[in-house]
Specification:
The protein has 2 helices and 14 strands. The strands form 4 sheets. It has a 5-stranded antiparallel beta sheet. A hairpin with a 2-residue loop joins strand 8 and strand 9.
Length: 183
């Protein structure tokens, strides 16, 4: 889930809070936009964290203590194991932005990887990049990069986005070595 706010309106609210004007605070609106990415058919039941952070989170929602969680570890990277058969996904951040890698192991079918975008105003491909248009902003997901390690060398594999309405998937027009993992 991605959440965006109108930054100009947030700055205006900050200024209103500084002058402590209750009437202006009550009438001020901050516009936002939310969209979700749902990985169709994915199984997120098996995960493993890597590179634990020092702090922990606590979650106390509702009145049922059985659904509360405390001292929940936070990781710099999370790996979802067999998200699809023989396909793992690593989630991490790079330069403050969320990133993820699919690891298609031998026997895995990259055609199973499909993500449905819900809530975006418009999706389209431009110069190999995915453009996600919202009421607040436009987000560019850079064209995918795929590679394999062959004889100790990183070999880049041609990979393209495929977009069918709001469903994003991948294609490998030149193929790849199915006996080796594809990232």
């Amino acid at each position: 889930t991605y959440i965006f706010h109108n930054n100009d309106q947030v700055e205006e609210l900050h200024d209103i809070l500084l002058i402590k004007d209750p009437a202006a605070m009550k009438n001020h609106i901050v516009s936002g936009h939310v969209y979700n990415i749902n990985f169709i058919g994915a199984d997120f039941s098996r995960s493993q964290g890597h590179d634990a952070q020092k702090h922990k989170y606590n979650f106390f929602r509702g009145n049922n203590p059985g659904k509360w969680a405390s001292n929940v570890p936070i990781y710099h990277e999370t790996e979802f194991i067999d998200m699809y058969p023989n396909i793992d996904m690593k989630v991490y951040s790079s330069e403050g932005m969320p990133k993820y890698d699919f690891i298609v192991k031998p026997g895995g079918d990259p055609n199973l990887i499909a993500s449905e975008y819900e809530g975006a105003d418009k999706l389209y491909l431009r110069n190999g990049n995915l453009i996600i248009q919202t009421s607040i902003n436009s987000i560019t997901e850079a064209a995918p990069i795929a590679y394999q390690i062959i004889d100790g060398t990183k070999v880049f594999i041609k990979c393209d986005y495929k977009l069918n309405k709001n469903i994003l998937s991948y294609s490998f027009p030149n193929g790849y070595d199915k006996a080796k993992s594809l990232i």
